[in-house]
Amino acid sequence: MKVSHFFSPLLLAAVLHGGAAHAATSQKVACACQGLPSVVYPKDDSYPNLTTAYWDVRANLSPSCIFLPQSADDVASALRTLHECDSTFAIRGGGHMNFPGSNGIEEGVLVSLEHMNAISYNERTKTVNVAPGARWVDVYTSLDRVGRYTIGGRLKTIGVPGLTLIGGYHYFINKYGFTMDNVVSYEAVLGNGTKVVASRTSHPDLFWGLKGSANNLALVTNFEFSTYPIARLSTTIQTFADDEIENFLDATVDFLKKSDSSVGAGGIFTISLNSSTGLFSASLLGAQEGTSSPPSKFGSFSRLNATLRRNAVLRPVEWHSQFDTPFQAQRIQFVSHTMKPSKTQLRYLYREWRKAILDIGDVQGLYGTFVVNLTPKSAIAVGKRNGVGNLWEDALDEEDLLIWQFATSWAAASDDLRMSAWSETLAARLHAENRAKDLAHPLLYMGDAGEFQNPFQTFFSANTLRRLRKIRKEYDPVLVFTRNVWGGFKMGF
């Protein structure tokens, strides 16, 4: 029987072209794998562990080979090879972003930076140099020896590059700004394999461009961070039963409105459904610089009836080491939006999420969390006034903002599409309702967003995008980090 009986000539041409394109791509990847030294292939014993070093099971992909550089020179050589072969590749630091493809790849080359994990403190400059394979608990452990602290990840296993390159939320952003605002210099490798140092005085355009652009411009091989003489934290862990949840939300808004730059203080504010018991509860993980206990900035929560209230003065590394996101724990979908602070509307969002999460109670392994991330105006002011800025500056006024996020996990791959659609649809409806009430804000933090959202399209200003594309034209004219690194949030052409 003739093929033309089943396929039109145009469709047949498309199928043949698709096969040819895949073969060409495979040849480019094979060129890179063969040209890189000491790569790991699917047949190797270490391959399974390397391809499952993600906390979101959905992110497990199957690269054709994995390259583990030991130094910036290794990275530079690898990027020259990848560029010459025109191979697709992904970059993984600590795997901070969770969705599939953001730091992994199917069939391409995975550049995994885990062996580049050196950390060194400079006593003269009071800065710490951190390689891109380090995790924040490693940084805090190193700084603990000299009684210093920096503005990094709140959970211990979060990777340094992922958090830093997308902005970075920490407990003390109200005083010290976002993680990106605390970077003194970047050592980076460009798409053609050239090594550069970006700082206020060296390549200052790239220095600015790396503050919030994720993986769109270069591969950073060293971050130099400011550090602070903070040897102790006043901490609080508080939990609340269902009947206090809406009061908990009110207290969260009060905390935001009272935030200023006098004392570093912040928290992680969550409401969770235990699908096994059907019960909802709220929790606060709070930290404040200093040794006064309980931490004074959390007074609005102290007035609530808590099921647990534990205050302690701890070294930073002791505090951060308690909280983890283990590898392969779950399948999880994020989605988030931002609003101006309103107690009434935040209560409404919570009630709508609560009804919606109960409607999908049949999903195997369901665990739902309503997360509030606070962005005080004093945090925004740091980047606007430090003489450097960041990619957010044009899109943000100095005003208090509140990010609301749904973090929903489940067990079975068969529910992936259902859960993504549920998350996207519910969040879009509530964001639209906020917009109709003039309460919505375009801030979209990459670390809290779903893969169907894109901060470059919806948050960054037109002026920022023009400036960023000009920088890309200067430092990556052939678009290696746009065409060949396709994962994560991209600024487009």
Automatic annotation (TrEMBL):
Ranges for domain FAD-binding PCMH-type: 59-230
This protein's UniProt keywords: FAD, Flavoprotein, Oxidoreductase, Signal
Signal sequence region: 1-23
Keyword Flavoprotein found: yes
InterPro entries: FAD-bd_PCMH (IPR016166), FAD-bd_PCMH-like_sf (IPR036318), FAD-bd_PCMH_sub2 (IPR016169), FAD-linked_Oxidoreductase (IPR050416), Oxid_FAD_bind_N (IPR006094)
GO molecular function, one term: oxidoreductase activity
Short name of one Pfam family: FAD_binding_4
Family label: Belongs to the oxygen-dependent FAD-linked oxidoreductase family.
Matches recorded under PANTHER family: BINDING OXIDOREDUCTASE, PUTATIVE (AFU_ORTHOLOGUE AFUA_1G17690)-RELATED, FAD-BINDING PCMH-TYPE DOMAIN-CONTAINING PROTEIN-RELATED
Name used for this protein in its record: FAD binding domain protein
Organism placement in taxonomy: Eukaryota, Fungi, Dikarya, Basidiomycota, Ustilaginomycotina
